[in-house]
Amino acid sequence: MGENIENIEPNLEDIDKKDSRGRTPLINSIVQRKAIDVIESIIMAGANLELIDKLGDTALKKAIKFKRIDVVELLIKHGVNIQSENIENSPWFFARKNKKIADILLGTKGAIRLTLSRDEENTLEELLYNEDIDYICSKIENLDSPEILHAFILEFNYDDEWLPIVSVLKNDNCKEITAIEIIELLTDGNIADLKLIDEKIFNLLKSTNIIALKKRLNN
Questions:
Q1: Does the pTM exceed 0.70?
Q2: What PROSITE patterns does the record point to (predicted)?
């Protein structure tokens, strides 16, 4: 049997009251791993889905952090905001290490599907394990799948020759988030280091028409 909702559901006037950690009853119900029907009862009582605690976490971010796929789906069903000024501040970006949850948030502007089909997986493996650099680069430059390009960037061995990375950046199907991941993986987010590591990649990134990246790469 589920939990006794009557004993857990807050009074309507206290539905968004925060505790010492800045957590609302909704956020607490997620942190305390309450049953989904309990969480939905709080939402149905009028809980604000967008309030943040002292860590800056919303109910959605807490659901992602605690890997509550059911709660993520529930929050989306009830209209939680999944958009952000830029992809790096979005719930999708926070969830991207968990493919299942990230793909639930695909409606986020700038997001990319992370779970590949079997055919896409086969193509990715061919690119990752082929030792012919010229073949790999040629294949990448003509690839019409943003998803495979992105997956390649995530699984590429950065101790190897970097020419395939240049090929990814030259491909018109390379998305903003893929370029951002390249920056993160090569420099831990420190753009100044990228010019020292590989000026060709730096210049390719800087010459893109991606507004967010131009702002980040300005000297």
A1: yes
A2: ANK_REP_REGION, ANK_REPEAT
